[in-house]
TrEMBL record:
Residue ranges constituting the Carboxymuconolactone decarboxylase-like domain according to the UniProt record: 28-109
InterPro entries listed in its UniProt record: AhpD-like, AhpD_core, CMD-like
Protein name in the entry: Alkyl hydroperoxide reductase AhpD
Superkingdom of the source species: Bacteria
SUPFAM superfamilies named in the record: AhpD-like
A GO molecular function held by the record: peroxiredoxin activity
Length: 169
């Protein structure tokens, strides 16, 4: 448990929670399978778009660990702070994103939430208008993978704040 100060000594932050379990130490083959799935999902998906998908799904799923990781990765790879910050309100700040990115973000939300039990036809049609079938399959795969990672990290309470992007190491 660490205590961190920010900006001034009188702003002491809350203590960091401990993880529930070292999931990937307990299930190493599962971890390796997830890594392979992640690698396969990333093939054919624009890395900029993939970062947006990962960040948006992680916001929806309240996955602090994944938000820490994927925002740091996106910024290290050249994404702007402005676009990352606005992602939580992308529908109100559409002008920061391309039409293709907007279609993928709408699809990310629909696949992540599934409150109606299905992805609405208009959301799928908008995505299909911007991606050919192979690209769309890859985008859906990317959304499924980040949702899986989110569920692992949230259920095991993985601790955010310690991740360093590869490009910054």
């Amino acid at each position: 448990m660490t205590t961190t100060t920010v900006h001034s000594p009188d702003r002491t932050l809350a203590h960091e929670h401990a993880p529930r379990m070292p999931f990937f130490e307990r299930a190493p083959e599962f971890y390796r399978a997830m890594v392979r799935l992640e690698q396969e999902a990333a093939k054919g998906v624009d890395p900029v778009l993939y970062h947006l998908i990962k960040i948006r799904a992680s916001q929806i799923n309240h996955c602090a660990f994944c938000l820490d990781m994927h925002t740091k990765d996106a910024l290290a790879e050249g994404e702007t702070v402005e676009r990352v910050v606005q992602l939580a309100a992308w529908q109100e700040s559409r002008h920061f994103y391309t039409e293709r990115e907007l279609a993928a973000l709408a699809l990310t939300e629909a696949v992540t939430v599934l409150t109606d039990g299905f992805v609405p036809d208009e959301v799928y049609a908008a995505a299909a208008a911007h991606f050919d079938e192979e690209e769309l399959a890859r985008v859906i795969g990317a959304i499924v993978v980040i949702n899986s990672w989110n569920r692992i990290a949230v259920s095991t309470r993985m601790v955010p704040g310690h991740y360093t992007p590869r490009s910054a190491q």
